[in-house]
Amino acid sequence: MRSLKRRQFLKILSLTPLSLAVFLPAARAMECKVPHPLMPPQTQFQGQCPVCGMVRPMWARTWIRFKPFQGVEQVCSFHCLADWSIKTGQDPSDIMLAVYHEPGKMIPAGSAFVVSGSAAAGTMSPVSKIVFDNRTTATEFAQRCGGDLLDFSGALAAAKSSVLKENKMIKVRQIKKGKIVEPSETDRCPVCNMVPARYPYGKCQIQIKSGKTFHFCSTQCLFAFMGESSLYVDPPMNPFLIWVVDRNSGMWTSGRTAFYVTGSSKVFGPMGYEAFPFNSMAEASEFAAENGGTAVNYGDVTIEKIVPGWVYPLKIFRTED
Fold first, then answer.
1. Position 317 confidence tier, pLDDT thresholds 50, 70, 90
2. By C-alpha distance, which of 71, 70, 95 is closest to 81?
3. 287/78 Cα distance (integer angstroms)
4. Whole-structure pTM value
5. Strands 233-234 and 319-320
6. Mind listing the pLDDT tens digit for each residue in 229-274?
7. From residue 169, how far is each of 57, 248, 260 by CA, in Å?
8. Under a CB-based contact definition with an 8 Å cutoff, are residues 131 and 137 in contact?
9. In whole angstroms, what is the distance from residue 276 CA to residue 267 CA?
10. What is the four-CA torsion angle of 277, 280, 284, 290, rounded to 10 degrees?
11. Are 274 and 249 in contact (CB under 8 A)?
């Protein structure tokens, strides 16, 4: 009996290195990955990223806030912060970052330690950027889970270097997941009843929380609709996602963070006067200098500023939501 117990003990002992080889990496992998996005969404977190449309109740671990600029004060990730910086031509100020493992805790960017490229999941980029509030914890995490330890400036610079390439992949993914819906020949603009699919640089859209998408042939129709949606649909709606097409690249971009040229008398769109969308203020300003008009942000665009003397028609094509 004693011999049997001894043999069993020796057998177990001989298997221990193998067991550790199998289970320790798995345990470490669990340490490196936490629930992200938060599921179910945690509603104590409020906010939506205007760059990509992601919501803070799900993506709170990588959330970033800053002093309001051009109507924007928060984004979901380093990727969208880099995108917004490129769009505006300047970095936001008073930046606060969520601590990845304590998403309710926001710290100044200058005191953050960021592990870039670890095994932990990112938000918009495949190269995650995980924020810590002290160097020791960040260093230990990088040793266990991989990645490089950076300060905030280094992490933002890394995000800027890859954002344009990543945006192309992100747009493909957003279309595949239905966050952006390409219009078909059967879709009609609810304002003018034209076919948005026939206007590749004019098409734009609104998606509401239910997932229903309204397609428009032009920004003129888009902003007319948003000015008085109750005239066109019943019940009235609030946009969840707004997408327009960048006039230079032909790529979809967020309507809330696009820059527009209004008042041009040299170039016209499908409905005549337009708010021509651009992915950056620099591109919008260049277009305005060449073609007349004024470069403005999303918050400054109204249908009355697009069309001089605009009045809503007495008879309006109306659809049911």
1. low
2. 95
3. 29
4. 0.87
5. parallel
6. 989 988 888 999 999 999 999 999 999 999 999 999 899 999 999 9
7. 24, 18, 24
8. no
9. 9
10. -130
11. no
159 and 125 in contact (C-beta within 8 Å)? yes
Core vs surface per residue 117-134: b (16+ CB within 10 A) or e: bbbbbbbbbebbbbbbbe
**Model confidence over 3-51: pLDDT tens digits?**
445 556 445 445 444 443 433 344 445 579 899 999 999 999 999 999 9
Strands (E), 25-128: 64-69, 72-75, 96-99, 102-108, 113-116
List 215's β-bridge partners, or say none.
Answer: 205
Which strands form 148-150's sheet, in the order they lie side by side?
Answer: 129-132, 113-116, 148-150
The secondary structure of 172-221, three-state, reads HHHHHCCCCCCCCCCCCCCCCCCCHHHCCCCCEEEECCCCCEEEECCHHH
pLDDT digits (tens, 9 = 90+) for 108-124: 999 999 999 999 999 99
- Residue positions counted in the chain: 321
